[in-house]
Each structure stands twice: as C-alpha cells, then as structure tokens.
Design a protein that fits this description.
With 343 residues, the chain is mainly β. The chain has three helices and 31 strands. Residues 1-113 form the Bacteriophage P22 tailspike N-terminal domain.
Length: 343
C-alpha cells in the first residue's frame, strides 16, 4: 500500500501503556482509535489504523489494538508500531473493560510533557481518572457519553468537555433532562439544566425544580445567572432549606409565562410548621406578569432572609407572607402592584 502517507504514530503518547492510577501495565487491555473529539469505541467513529513494517510498508489492522502483559501494543502477539494518517482520539481500556484513559485529540499533546499535563490543573481534560479526582467523583462510575449506553443516576459521563450525571436509562444522542452538568462550584446553576432563553413560550419550571432538588441534596446554593426565565408552574423551594440567589435585580428575572398554573411564581409556602427552615432568596426579580396571584408566597419560613430582590405584577399581591418569624427583609422592592405590594 504505497499510496499511504502515514506519519502519525498511535501511542500513549508515552511508549508504555500503564494504568491511570498506578504504573502497572494495562495488561491484556485494548486501544481504540477514532475521529477527533468522538468516542472511538463506537465503530462508526473509528478510523483506519496500520502496522508499519521495518521496510516502511503498511498493513491495515482491525480494532481494538491489543495490549500485551508487559503493557505494549501488539499485532499477532508481536510488539508493533501502529500508525494512522490523521489526528485522532484514543481510548484505553483495561482487561475488565474499565476505561483508563480518553484523549479527545492525541496530536494536541506533547509526548514528553504528557505526565506533567496529567498532573496539572487542566489534566482533568485528558483522562477520566483525573476528571474523577478533580470533580470528587467515583472513577468506577464514569465513562464517555455514548448514545444507547445504559446509565443509572449515580453514573457520570464525559460529553463535549463537560461532565453530566443525574439520569437513568439509555443515553440519548446528547445530554438533556434529567441529566445535568456537574461543576466544582459551591453552587448549582440553573444554566446547568437548560439553555438560558428569553422565549415567553418556554417553560423552565421542571428544570428549575430539578436544579433546586440537586442543590438541596448536594448542600449547595441555587444560582440563577443573568437571563430571563419563564415558568408555567411555581419554582418550588418548599423541598427544604434552599438558598436561591441571582446576578442582580436588573439581570436575573423569573417570570410567570403564558398558561401559568398555580398561586405563586416562587413558592416558599409550607403547609405545616414541623421544622425550622431558613430558606432565602436574593438578587433576583420575580415577576407575576399579571398572571400569577403572587410573585412570591411564604409561610412557616423562620430565620430566612430576603435580600436585594424585586417582586412585581402579582394579581392579588406581589409578596404574601404569613406565620413567619425572625426573617430578614432588606433592600427589597414590592411595587408596582395591581392591588397590594405586600399582603
């Protein structure tokens, strides 16, 4: 096959294939080679790999490439030099089928500096083991997002340089609810659950409430970044102690959309006073849009704080509060109102 210009070596890029969390050889492991930024395990993404002989000739080989007990890639049992004709992604699996490494684009890495890259802050983008460490995740539960793969709520998946978790069942072609993006921040952002959109026809209620539930379970705050969020049912903060905060009253807007059902846009109205709750909300504008009875409705919230917020356009009142003790309200606006600012 003399017409092949094969000048890209298929390599770790280091010479020996070792385990992600030790220097042991990936004995009896497998190597998959594919198009850049794709999952090379999927046959549709794989590219042709060749063995380069001593005389310079090339023999096409099938995938996966086998790693011997010493950690070297072999062809018919013999250590060989494998090459391709283009840049590629690479996935390395151990003998038990666990992914040890994933490289979205091997040509982006200097072989002599790979070990330093893996140890650096950006090393999380180079291997799933480093990603797991960086994000505080269980390495054994991770993998590269692959449509049709089976997932449970504890699994996490690498997709387009981001981590997603939270869903169960087979993976769709791309992440969507209930899967959401994992971050290392001390808050959960609603932007992790859906694109920010100012479309009045959009309904972000389910995504808002999913974000609140994750924030509660993770012990993190719930962040509403700058944007306009239309909802058609209440943003429910009665699930527990949730601290919702935005980018500012002129930047973060939660608005009742057309067809809104329910009493209030943001709901902190507990039906029973069984425990003391300190739910808080700050730096947002909540707009009843002359559709919802209230922009915000609160009951049995104690030791909470409402700070730097604006509540507007509730049909009955902008803000309704009853049976609350020792709460703090500061730098808030409750006007204009069709009827009452505060009830």
């Amino acid at each position: 096959m003399t017409d092949i210009t094969a000048n890209v070596i298929v390599s770790m890029p280091s010479q020996l294939f070792t385990m992600a969390r030790s220097f042991k050889a990936v004995a009896n492991g497998k190597i998959y080679i594919g198009k850049i930024d794709t999952d090379p395990v999927n046959p549709e993404n794989q590219i042709q790999v060749y063995v380069e002989n001593e005389d310079g000739s090339h023999v096409p080989v099938s995938q996966p490439i086998i790693i011997n007990a010493a950690g070297y890639p072999v062809y018919n049992g013999q250590i060989a030099k494998f090459v391709t004709v283009q840049g590629h992604s690479m996935a390395v699996y151990d003998a038990y089928g666990a992914q040890q490494f994933y490289f979205p684009n091997v040509l982006k890495y200097d072989p002599d500096q790979l070990r330093q890259e893996l140890a650096s802050d950006r090393g999380a983008t180079l291997s799933l083991s480093q990603i797991a460490t960086s994000y505080g995740l269980d390495f054994s539960l991770g993998g590269v997002w692959r449509e049709g793969a089976l997932s449970n709520v504890d699994n996490w998946w690498w997709y387009n340089n981001k981590i997603y978790t939270g869903g169960s069942g087979t993976l769709p072609s791309s992440p969507a609810l209930p899967w959401y993006e994992v971050t290392v921040a001390d808050y959960i952002s609603v932007a992790q659950f859906f694109p920010i959109t100012g479309d009045p026809a959009a309904d972000n209620s389910a995504s808002f409430n999913a974000a609140a539930a994750v924030a509660l379970s993770a012990g993190k705050r719930l962040f509403v970044p700058a944007g306009t969020y239309y909802v058609k049912s209440p943003v429910d903060l009665t699930i527990g102690t949730v601290d919702l905060f935005g980018d500012g009253v002129e930047k973060s807007f939660i608005i009742a959309g057309s067809g809104f059902t329910g009493e209030t846009v943001v709901n902190m109205y507990y039906e029973t006073d069984s425990i003391r709750r300190s739910t808080s909300i700050s730096h947002v504008t909540v707009d009843g849009n002359n559709i919802a009875n209230y922009a915000c409705r609160i009951q049995y919230v104690h030791l909470g704080r409402t700070h730097n917020c604006r509540f507007i356009n509730g049909v009955v009142a902008n803000f309704y509060t009853i049976n609350d003790w020792l709460n703090t309200y500061d730098c808030c606006s409750f006007v204009p109102a069709p009827n009452r600012g505060v009830h």
